[in-house]
């Protein structure tokens, strides 16, 4: 523990570190006090606790009335979920909507027929909703990680200590222990500081043995637990998220040697995460990235106060459990990566067993040599496998939201799909007659009610039953309009167009996957160019090869082959998954024009997909060539990487503009 104590003292004696710590503490105090006095809709926490004005008293009375109406709220939730599971659209027991509704009803069923009386626990309510302290702890961890792990490298002390046996592993472990102790200490201190400020201004009028629903702002928590148990869960999750940030930041900082690069990496990472969190809507297929997200972790307390879930495949998982699972996987993976990055390799004596063989092998070609060298770089292989796994996971869990009207439109399109003839016309006439008969029955029911031959309760029940049979009418009318439009244009085939639109107009998805692919290519080219240039391989190559450009040509071929292969996998797997998800057989499109887009084209949808595939492949090759030409002379791999990332952003902006046309 002497080294741990030394590392902590070294940080505390560093003047900028002390200034940052003082700034974090003062800012946390100021932010907490500001939130307590800040008025929202004319009411602040301090005025609410003191009942200092009429608006605050009225707001608190409204909260009390809302708590008294809780049994009606639970009854409404249970009845709506029961009606949803009985509808045609969500009646499949294996669907996400059915399972999610069933889970929600199970939680609120335990709270039915319970009456809650609101208690004036303003300080506890503020503590559970306050968003500042976790952000302050994260900022402290980032700066502490820089002071412990990077500043020593910037001061050129690490090369002097490296000859000491096993220095790198031991020093990194002790530095992480120091970071853990300082981060935990700051976490506890800021929590106590928050409690002290809130208790001094709001007081403590809370009974922790009462249900959490009696605390203002937590009436709709779906869990039957006491306020004390809920507080324990809140603090445990907050501590676990802090541990995740400790390991996550350590895994990043251990691979970097310069402070600006570290801070830039953190800014870009959190900026991208905040962008995903704010831009992804709940109906998007990227909903999982919205909550498996660093920004979501910083405001985890929002997801404890209500029932919220997201689909993984067709299985609903609550967001609070998803956050715990994210932190658990993050802690394990970050710990493994940190251990791998700091492991000091032991010297080993390796025998070249091939020397004992009596067989002569022909010399390998230059392309074979460069290809093997490309894959021997573990980072290149890791990025390649990560892309394949991400795309495979996307294909496995692809389950976009299909509304009621879209579902029925799909089913009616399957009935009408094919060659347009008398069959579709007769079927549409029969369907119109069916809906007209139901509407006629509803009209007769209202006539009976007007003649007082039926009471209102019976009328509502009968009308509701008949209305369920009309819920598919809008989807049918959409399919009928599509058929009539095609017939008026002289078309001969009916094609269900939604899967085609999902493929051609998924701008958000295309840009995301292109971004991942461009980042991977940027790293591959930087690694292929920067490593050889840093070692001045051009001088070594001239010993046996006078024309260095041949090596560059081979590198180009390899990057073209790998990037083109990954692009092909992304494109083809996405197309096949979407067509299969919407039950659109690819072979059925091979003989049909692109009728769904309303454009008369002389080639089939497969031909159009092939043209789009070729255009995308050409765009990737152009991107490869531009990056090669602009970074081929750089000796620093990091400089080449940042140059490539900047060019990737430009190419993504151009691609976004093309998709918007």
UniProtKB/TrEMBL annotation:
Keywords: Membrane, Transmembrane, Transmembrane helix. The chain crosses the membrane at residues 20-37, 132-150, 171-190, 233-254, 260-278, 316-341, 381-399, 510-530, 558-581, 601-628, 640-659. The keyword Protein transport does not apply. The keyword Transmembrane helix applies. This is Uncharacterized protein.
């Amino acid at each position: 523990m002497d080294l741990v104590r030394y590392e902590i003292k070294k940080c505390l004696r560093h003047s900028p570190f002390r200034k940052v710590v003082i700034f974090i503490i003062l800012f946390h105090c100021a932010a907490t006090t500001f939130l307590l006095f800040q008025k929202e809709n004319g009411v602040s926490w301090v005025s609410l606790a003191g009942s200092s004005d009429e608006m605050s008293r009225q707001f608190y009375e409204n909260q009390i009335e809302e708590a008294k109406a809780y049994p009606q709220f639970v009854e409404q939730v249970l009845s709506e979920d029961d009606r949803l599971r009985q509808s045609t659209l969500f009646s499949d027991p294996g669907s996400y909507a059915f399972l999610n509704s069933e889970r929600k009803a199970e939680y609120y069923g335990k709270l039915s027929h319970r009456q809650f009386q609101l208690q004036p626990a303003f300080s506890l309510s503020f503590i559970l909703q306050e968003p500042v302290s976790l952000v302050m702890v994260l900022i402290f961890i980032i700066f502490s990680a820089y002071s412990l792990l990077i500043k020593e490298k910037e001061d050129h002390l690490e090369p002097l200590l490296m000859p000491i046996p096993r220095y790198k592993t031991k020093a990194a472990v002790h530095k992480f222990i120091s970071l853990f102790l300082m981060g935990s200490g700051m976490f506890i201190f800021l929590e106590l500081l928050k409690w002290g400020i809130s208790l001094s201004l709001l007081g403590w009028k809370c009974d922790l043995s009462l249900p959490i629903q009696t605390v203002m702002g937590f009436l709709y928590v779906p869990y039957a637990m006491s306020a004390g148990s809920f507080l324990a869960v809140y603090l445990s999750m907050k501590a676990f998220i802090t541990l995740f940030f400790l390991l996550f930041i350590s895994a990043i900082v251990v691979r970097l040697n310069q402070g600006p690069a570290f801070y830039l990496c953190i800014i870009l990472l959190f900026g991208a995460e905040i962008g995903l969190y704010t831009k992804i809507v709940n109906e998007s297929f990227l909903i999982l990235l919205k909550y498996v997200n660093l920004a979501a972790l910083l405001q985890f307390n929002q997801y404890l106060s209500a029932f919220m879930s997201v689909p993984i495949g067709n299985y609903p998982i609550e967001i609070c459990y998803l956050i715990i699972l994210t932190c658990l996987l993050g802690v394990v993976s970050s710990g493994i990566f940190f251990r791998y990055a700091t492991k000091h390799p032991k010297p080993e004596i390796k025998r070249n067993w091939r020397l004992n063989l009596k067989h002569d092998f022909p010399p390998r070609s230059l392309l074979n040599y460069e290809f093997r060298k490309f894959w021997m770089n573990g980072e290149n292989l890791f990025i390649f496998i990560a892309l394949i796994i991400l795309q495979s996971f996307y294909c496995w869990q692809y389950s976009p939201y299909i509304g009621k009207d879209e579902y029925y439109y799909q089913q009616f399109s399957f009935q009408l799909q094919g060659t347009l003839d008398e069959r579709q016309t007769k079927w549409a006439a029969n369907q119109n007659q069916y809906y007209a008969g139901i509407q006629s029955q509803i009209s007769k029911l209202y006539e009976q009610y007007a003649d007082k031959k039926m009471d209102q309760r019976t009328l509502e029940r009968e009308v509701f039953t008949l209305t369920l049979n009309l819920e598919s009418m809008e989807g049918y009318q959409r399919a009928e309009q599509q058929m009539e439009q095609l017939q008026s244009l002289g078309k001969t085939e009916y094609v269900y167009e939604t899967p085609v639109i999902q493929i051609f107009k998924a701008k958000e998805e295309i840009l995301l996957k292109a971004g991942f692919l461009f980042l991977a290519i940027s790293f591959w080219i930087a690694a292929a160019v920067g490593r050889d240039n840093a070692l001045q391989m051009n001088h070594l190559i001239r010993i046996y090869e006078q024309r260095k450009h041949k090596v560059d040509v081979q590198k180009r071929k390899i990057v073209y082959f790998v990037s083109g292969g990954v692009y092909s996998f992304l494109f083809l797997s996405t197309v096949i998954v979407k067509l299969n998800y919407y039950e659109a057989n690819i072979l059925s499109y091979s003989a049909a024009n692109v009728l769904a887009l309303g454009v008369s084209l002389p080639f089939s949808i497969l031909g159009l997909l092939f043209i789009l595939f070729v255009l995308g492949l050409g765009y990737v090759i152009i991107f490869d060539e531009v990056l090669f030409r602009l970074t081929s002379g750089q000796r620093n791999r990091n400089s080449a990487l940042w140059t490539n990332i900047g060019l990737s952003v430009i190419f993504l902006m151009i691609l976004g503009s093309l998709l918007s046309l």
